[in-house]
TrEMBL record:
It is a multi-pass membrane protein. Pfam families: SSF (PF00474). PANTHER family: SODIUM-SOLUTE SYMPORTER-RELATED (PTHR48086:SF7), SODIUM/PROLINE SYMPORTER-RELATED (PTHR48086). Belongs to the sodium:solute symporter (SSF) (TC 2.A.21) family. One of its GO terms (molecular function) is transmembrane transporter activity. Keywords: Membrane, Transmembrane, Transmembrane helix, Transport. It is found in: Membrane. It comes from the Bacteria. The chain crosses the membrane at residues 6-22, 43-63, 75-95, 116-136, 156-173, 185-209, 221-242, 263-288, 308-335, 355-376, 382-403, 410-428, 434-455. InterPro entries: Na/Glc_symporter_sf, Na/solute_symporter, Sodium:Solute_Symporter. This is Solute:Na+ symporter, SSS family. GO terms for cellular component: plasma membrane. It comes from Sporolituus thermophilus DSM 23256.
Length: 480
């Protein structure tokens, strides 16, 4: 117990030490705090997107799913990797060249004010949902690692204090630098944990022989179905292009080339972690068949001995830290830039603006902790929430590649239709004719976008229209 507690405390101390150092780099103003002075090199972009991707859903959530459907749960991380690769190839350099701050800001440049308002509501909702799940996983990890020190709830509270504290201190610099440690620890812990788990149980053949009949545990599709796995890829590719976390990382890159290369290298880092966590979930199914699925990964790791268990679970907690910090920062940026600075106080000075960002992060941290106490099903909840990015991605891609189809009201009505479709999916079982809500989202959003293109005759301005009050930086032409 003392060894495990020492490992956790040492990791927390290291993270705060990095954050204090990062504070010096982020002390000059809001651009330093929110976008790391726009100086993230290729390596920092790569570890940041990997740190964002490999969080609660990619570790605890994948093992939870594998416990029920097999190793095919690892395709979730493969889908995240595909999303990062597409972002690198299609959009990362565009965002960096634009020097924009948020997707809602971009929407108002090209569309209208109400498009900005509805998009910021949707994006903040997504950030809040995903952040709350990081606390849930953090509580599971700490309560498994140190049951005499943490209950599930106190583990969530402790996780929240660390996540929020690190973000408040150093912003994106803090997240970026701490991700170097976190991603290294994640790889070390998960690699060693997977190898020892398989060896301890006698190898993959022994694990396969002991799994209950009725599910293709090691099949490429497992108990999921091809439509579900394809849905994951559609969700992750969709959300990576317009969710605030990836956008903020791309905007923080030192150049368009660094943004592009960083996302491509990040995709390679993300890919293997899911299948390793899925293997540990299967091992837990054999060793602890009646354990709560969410606890599958922490439970199996605790059987590895104090030092390995401490390092591996600290690695999983590191995954939570890296994800939650970027999410909290993104949520703060969305509120401060697209609500406070745009509509409440357009003439705010930089010092006050930075304070508003920090207060927003603190407030959202409290709200998301409350939500975590009521959350169930990490992966399922996250994937439904991320489906909401469909409208934003469709509008962004059409703005970049098919501006002739875009109308001034396209962003508002497409986003509104996407929100309505997701709400209907939740409350009207009869419309669930697809394997995943993302398919319904794309169908509804594309139909709405094309309908608006026919009805609305007012096209968007080729260069993004007139400058908008409250926006930080402008460019002349996204297409040129």
């Amino acid at each position: 117990m003392s060894i495990q507690l020492f490992i956790v405390i040492a990791y927390i101390v290291l993270l705060f030490a990095i954050s204090v150092y990062a504070k010096k780099k982020a002390s000059s103003g809001s651009t330093d705090f929110l976008f790391a002075s726009r100086k993230l090199n290729t390596a920092l972009v790569a570890v940041n997107i990997a740190g964002l991707a490999v969080g609660a859903a990619s570790t605890i959530g994948v093992a939870e799913n594998a416990f029920q459907v097999g190793i095919a749960a690892g395709w979730y991380n493969a889908a995240w990797a595909a999303g990062a690769a597409v972002m690198g190839l299609v959009a990362a350099s565009k965002y960096r060249d634009l020097n924009c701050t948020t997707v809602p800001e971009l929407f108002e440049r090209y569309y209208d004010e109400k498009g900005r308002i509805i998009s910021v509501i949707g994006l903040i909702t997504i950030q809040v949902v995903i952040t709350s799940l990081q606390y849930l996983a953090g509580g599971a990890i700490l309560s498994s690692l140190l049951p005499e020190v943490f209950t599930f709830k106190s583990g969530m509270i402790t996780s929240a204090v660390v996540f929020i504290g690190i973000t408040l201190i150093g912003g994106l610099w803090s997240s970026g630098l701490s991700n170097i440690v976190s991603v290294a620890l994640i790889y070390l812990g998960v690699l060693v944990g997977t190898a020892m788990t398989i060896t301890q149980q006698g190898g993959l053949a022994v694990i396969a022989a002991k799994l209950p009949a009725g599910t293709d545990w090691f099949g490429p599709v497992g108990g999921l179905g091809l439509a579900t796995i394809a849905g994951w890829f559609v969700v992750m590719i969709t959300q990576t292009i317009t969710a605030q976390g990836p956008v903020q990382i791309a905007c923080g890159a030192e150049s368009a080339a660094a943004a592009r290369r960083g996302f491509l290298w990040g995709a390679l880092l993300i890919f293997p972690i899911g299948f390793m966590c899925a293997l540990m979930g299967l091992a837990a199914k054999v060793a602890y068949p009646t354990v709560q699925a969410t606890m599958a990964l922490p439970k199996i790791i605790m059987s590895l001995g104090p030092v390995i268990a401490g390092v591996t679970l600290a690695a999983l907690w590191a995954a939570d830290v890296s994800t939650a910090c970027t999410l909290l920062l993104g949520a703060g940026t969305l509120f401060a830039q697209d609500i406070y600075k745009r509509f409440i106080n357009p003439s705010v000075d930089d010092r006050t603006y930075l304070l508003i960002n920090r207060l927003t992060i603190l407030g959202i941290g409290g709200v998301t902790l409350w939500m975590a106490f009521n959350a169930v099903g990490i992966l399922k909840t996250l994937l439904i929430g991320l489906s909401l990015t469909t409208a934003f991605t469709l509008v962004f891609l059409c703005t970049i590649f098919m501006p002739g189809l875009c109308r001034r009201s396209s962003a508002f009505y497409t986003t509104l239709a996407g929100m309505a479709a997701l709400l209907a999916w939740q409350i009207i079982p009869g419309i669930r004719i697809f394997a995943h809500p993302i398919y319904l989202e794309w169908l509804v959003c594309v139909m709405t976008f094309l309908t608006v293109a026919v009805i609305d005759k007012q096209k968007i301005a080729h260069g993004g229209g007139e400058p908008v009050v409250g926006a930080e930086i402008r460019v002349n032409d996204i297409h040129g």
